[in-house]
């Protein structure tokens, strides 16, 4: 590689709550170096410390270590004391901030994005990651080169993986023998999840747990239908009680029941919320706008005086809302679950989420399929993402919000239903008389929109609402192919 002299760092990589770029095309090593300087400067200004301690980790992608080295150089040049815990999951880094009582965290990962992508998840306040304000501030510092210079240093923290694993195992032993398929899509969770779930008492069947940064079968993404189908097949072949699929950096989980059916994560969240509400009467739960409408009217939650708040999609948004509302837990349809004190530290950890599902099975003498069948049936689409340019997506959504509000005000019917409620906390979620709803929002980490629909009435109505949304989108002329479609 020739000596890099030009700094390359695309402003579009600073997203709502993560930084994500295609490596070398949109950011090069000098760009990463500057990102480290920007982050170090931001941490010093917020903590008012000359040498704040920053936990640093990286995922298993082939280029993640060289990116971590460049980020580290930048952080050290501002005066940060970097504590490198090595190959990690995002939740391992979050946990390390509490365990080692550090001032900030940075995790080099592009999570479930395709190969070529890189990124950083970062946070200053314990248990929280950057939201839009912090990302904007970081972007301004980095692009304007408004850097502090100082004298930092680095040290390696050895065996931190073991500390993280033991913390989860020791608190969560179960006495029921649960047979679990554990799928990691060849991502970093492969060296964590099987060992932890065995440690709590599960019989584990490993699926694609060998680390392979080429992701030979599919991206490690529990919303990817290919991954879910592979888990389903393994559950049926092995007569397993449950299947778990973890994403590339281990902060999300997808669940397959004992019959091989995918259970959308928002429904799993509702089951966990029900389970928790019996012990924690009067609790609050936070869910994202992509999640099922069942939470709001759930008889078990209402009986136990629990309240559900629908909030912006995105792990940083839900984490912050769980924190500010002092909610017991938060659930996202994408598989990010957040357990606050006394159950956790408030951040998302896919393995801890899987453990909570094991507790659910441990507490009830029923199969997961029987437990899920106790919930009212709803017909729900997967999360669908039609292409829309980063620089156009927010304006497109703003225009669609106005159109949907107009349709509501005019009492225009969609499949014989009028819109009775609109929630605009994140894009537009519009609900009908029978509890059916549709959602259109801008994706926070990719050039796309996000579409979800659900109906408690019929599969046909779910599809009619999708057709209505798709028609609105096509008329904009600014929306391309969907990643998956019903």
Notes on the structure:
The chain contains 15 helices and 20 strands. By secondary structure, it is an alpha/beta fold. Among the domains are: 11-158, Alpha-D-Glucose-1,6-Bisphosphate, Chain A, domain 3 (3-Layer(aba) Sandwich), CATH 3.40.120.10; 379-476, TATA-Binding Protein, CATH 3.30.310.50. A 6-stranded mixed beta sheet has the order 1-5-4-2-3-6, sandwiched between helices. A 5-stranded mixed beta sheet has the order 8-7-9-10-11, with helices on both faces. Strands 16-20-19-18-17 form a 5-stranded antiparallel beta sheet, with helices on one face. Strand 7 (179-183), helix 6 (193-200) and strand 8 (203-207) form a beta-alpha-beta unit. Helix 1 crosses helix 4. It is globular and about 65 Å long. The model has no long low-confidence stretch (mean pLDDT 96).
Topology diagram in text:
Elements lengths: L18 E4 L6 H19 L5 E6 L5 H15 L2 E7 L2 H10 L4 E5 L8 E7 L8 H12 L9 E4 L3 H12 L7 E5 L9 H8 L2 E5 L17 H14 L3 E5 L6 E4 L5 E2 L1 H15 L4 E5 L5 H4 L1 H5 L3 E5 L3 H11 L3 E3 L5 E3 L10 H14 L4 H5 L6 E2 L9 H20 L9 E5 L4 E5 L4 E6 L6 E7 L3 H18 L10
Parallel strand pairs: 2-3, 2-4, 3-6, 7-8, 7-9, 12-13, 12-14
Antiparallel strand pairs: 1-5, 4-5, 9-10, 10-11, 14-15, 16-20, 17-18, 18-19, 19-20
What share of the residues lie within helices? 25-40%
Mean pLDDT: 96
Number of helices: 15
Poorly predicted tracts of residues: none
Q: Assign the CATH class of the domain at 11-158.
A: Alpha Beta
Structural class: alpha/beta
Largest sheet: 6 strands, mixed
Overall body shape:
globular
Q: Kindly report the name of the CATH homologous superfamily of the domain at 11-158.
A: Alpha-D-Glucose-1,6-Bisphosphate, subunit A, domain 3
């Amino acid at each position: 590689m020739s000596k890099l002299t030009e700094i390359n760092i695309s402003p579009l990589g600073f997203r709502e709550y993560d930084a994500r770029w295609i490596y070398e095309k949109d950011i090069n090593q000098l760009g990463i170096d500057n990102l480290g300087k920007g982050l170090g400067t931001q941490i010093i200004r917020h903590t008012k410390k000359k040498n704040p301690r920053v936990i640093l980790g990286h995922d298993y992608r082939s280029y993640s270590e060289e990116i971590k080295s460049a980020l580290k150089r930048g952080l050290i040049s501002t005066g940060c004391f970097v504590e490198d815990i090595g190959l990690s999951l995002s939740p391992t880094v979050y946990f390390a901030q509490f365990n080692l009582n550090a001032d900030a965290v940075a995790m080099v990962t592009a999570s479930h994005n395709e190969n070529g992508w890189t990124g950083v998840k970062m946070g200053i306040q314990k248990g929280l990651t950057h939201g839009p304000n912090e990302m904007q501030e970081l972007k301004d510092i980095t692009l304007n080169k408004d850097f502090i210079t100082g004298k930092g240093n680095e040290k390696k923290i050895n065996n931190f993986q073991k500390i993280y694993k033991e913390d989860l195992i020791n608190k969560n032993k179960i006495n029921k023998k649960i047979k679990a398929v554990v799928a990691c899509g060849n991502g970093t969770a492969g060296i964590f999840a099987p060992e932890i779930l065995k440690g709590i008492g599960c019989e584990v069947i490993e699926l694609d747990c060998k680390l392979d940064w080429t992701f030979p079968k599919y991206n490690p993404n529990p919303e990817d239908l290919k991954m879910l189908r592979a888990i389903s097949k393994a559950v049926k072949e092995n007569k397993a009680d449950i299947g778990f699929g973890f994403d590339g950096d281990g902060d999300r989980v997808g669940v397959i029941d004992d019959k091989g059916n995918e259970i959308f994560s928002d429904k799993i969240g509702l089951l966990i919320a029900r389970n928790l509400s019996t012990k924690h009467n009067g609790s609050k739960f936070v869910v994202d706008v992509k999640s099922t409408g069942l939470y709001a009217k759930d008889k078990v939650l209402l009986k136990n005086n629990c309240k559900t708040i629908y909030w912006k999609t995105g792990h940083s948004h839900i984490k912050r809302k769980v924190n500010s509302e002092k909610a017991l837990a938060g659930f996202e349809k994408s598989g990010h679950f957040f357990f606050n004190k006394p159950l956790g530290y408030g951040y998302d950890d896919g393995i801890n989420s899987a453990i909570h599902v094991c507790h659910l099975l441990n507490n009830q003498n029923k199969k997961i399929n029987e437990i899920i069948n106790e919930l009212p049936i709803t017909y729900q689409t997967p999360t669908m993402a039609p292409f829309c340019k980063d620089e156009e997506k927010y304006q497109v959504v703003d225009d669609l919000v106005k159109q949907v509000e107009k349709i509501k005000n005019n009492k225009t019917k969609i499949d014989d239903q009028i819109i009775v409620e609109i929630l605009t906390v994140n894009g537009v979620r519009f609900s009908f008389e029978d509890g059916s709803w549709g959602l259109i929002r801008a994706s926070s980490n990719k050039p796309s929109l996000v579409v979800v629909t659900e109906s408690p009435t019929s599969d046909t109505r779910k599809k009619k609402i999708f057709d209505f949304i798709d028609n609105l989108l096509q008329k904009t002329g600014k929306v391309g192919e969907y990643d998956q479609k019903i």
